[in-house]
Structure formats: C-alpha cells, structure tokens
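ok, trying the design again with the full structure, not the truncated one.
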C-alpha cells in the first residue's frame, strides 16, 4: 500500500515527462501558483491524481477545448 502512495507522487522530472513540457515551463507554473504542488524540503512534489484533476479543470475552462456536440 505504501508503494502505491509513493507511485502517486511525481518529481519535477517525472512531471515534465508526463505533461510533455520543458522543465522551465513547469517551474514557471509552480512559481506562479498555477499548478498544484508541494515543496518538501528543497524538492517539489506533485500528486498524480491532483495533476490529472487540474488538467481536466484547466481543459474545461479553455474556450473551444471541449468536444463538439453534434446531433448524432
């Protein structure tokens, strides 16, 4: 169970790979408080579930980001 919890926590490097963004962009998002994060000592950590929820919410608030609704 403890291993599952540890796998849910991402480092900066892991999150840049997961989000496919440069490290500098991620640091900017962290600095501006635009992405959910926790600083543990000198290291930033991110919960995967929280990031997934944040992505869903961010997508929902962007114009034109949803699927087109058609009359099937």
């Amino acid at each position: 169970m403890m291993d599952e919890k540890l796998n849910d926590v991402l480092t900066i490097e892991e999150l840049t790979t997961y989000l496919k963004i440069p490290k500098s962009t991620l640091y900017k998002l962290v600095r501006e408080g635009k992405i959910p994060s926790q600083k543990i000592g000198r290291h930033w950590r991110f919960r995967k579930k929280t990031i997934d929820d944040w992505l869903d919410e961010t997508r929902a608030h962007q114009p034109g980001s949803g699927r087109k609704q058609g009359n099937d």
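Keeping the full-length input from now on. Residues 2-59 form a domain with the Molybdopterin biosynthesis moea protein, domain 2 fold (CATH 3.90.105).
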